[in-house]
Write a structure and sequence with these properties.
Strands 2-5-8-7 form a 4-stranded antiparallel β-sheet, with helices on one face. Strands 1-6 form a two-stranded parallel sheet. Strands 3-4 form a two-stranded antiparallel ribbon. The protein has 2 helices and 8 strands, in the order E-E-E-E-E-H-E-E-E-H. The chain is of the alpha+beta class.
Length: 137
Amino acid sequence: IKIEMGALNEPTSSSYSEETRLSSLEPVYGKDIDQDRGDRRASRSLSFYFDQAFCDVEGEIAKLQLARRSRSPIRLDYGRSYDGKSYLITNLSVTEHGIDSDGRMLRAELTISLRETSHATLFGAIASIASPLIRRG
């Protein structure tokens, strides 16, 4: 799933976090020794504001809900750049602002939490290994 962001539905704010994994080894004498265990997967938080004046509010929310429920990796495409990473939506929070007489949402604020995943890469690796085996039948 690709979440495309244009001028009207870009996030209103974004935050990004990276972390290094370290283990501390305690020798009998002297100071602790840090052992580098690589990087943790990156995490992101995006906030959106949707208004019926420029988008289908419920449609945009449904798209994000589907991506979260199906655990489908998404890529963030800002139209001008793509960082090559895929993310899973780990949390989706919606605040409704106004409902019309037909019960449709007029405006909404959303916040989604994302975690970098290697799911797409792992699936591709499994598919490439299994492909020759499937062909041989």
